[in-house]
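PROTEIN FOLDING TASK:
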Amino acid sequence: MEIFTEEFESFILFQELENILIDNRKKLAELELKKLNLNEIYKSKVEELNIKNEALKKKMIEKKEIENELMTVEAEISKYQIQLNQVKKNDEFKAMLSQIETLKLKKDDIENRIIEIIDMVDNLSKEINDIKNNISEYERVKKAEEDSIDMKKTAIELNIKEILDKQNDVLNNIKDQATKIKVDNIMVKKDRLAIAKVKAKINEAHKAKNEDYFCSACNMKLTSEEASSVRKAKTFIICQNCSRLLYLEGIEYDRTKK
């Protein structure tokens, strides 16, 4: 199906401006995603710091509990050593001495556990310090990145406003309401791409090496009749596959045909 319109070039310009808007909105979305990723990375670093701080807190509590346990054992050893000097019988002396040795072994074990926890606390403290330094550096980088993103967003948003103004001017000057309504309906259904170029490919298999024409939006091959129609002046054809309006660019149109 052919659509002839005196405002052929205005409709193409309108779609070209729309394509710029689509591209700019895509760039805005990418910048927003980049900003979101920066915040997600920052949150993960803060979460890692919180986990390490919680682990350090637990180890400090554990260390305090074991130190209290050590004090209890040391107090028992001191008590038994005092009692040892008061024991008269040999059997009682040996039994109490055995208890003292058992407590000393327990004390050694507790002291080793304390040393291990101190090492863990030291390592955690170092990790926490490294994470804090990393976060501080990342905050600096993040701020610079966000400032850069905001500048780019502002420029793109300004460009979008300018394009919208141009697009509105083009639209307001179009008199062909029937084609305007058709383009608007297609835009709603086809992700804002209502008008697409026809792309030409040389058919190497053909002796004369004729060109085959395709819809650039859906890659549907045009029939020979459609290929002839699309070469007419100020004429769109409708793609049989995706229903978009198609036009051929970059050639001398056969302006004798309408």
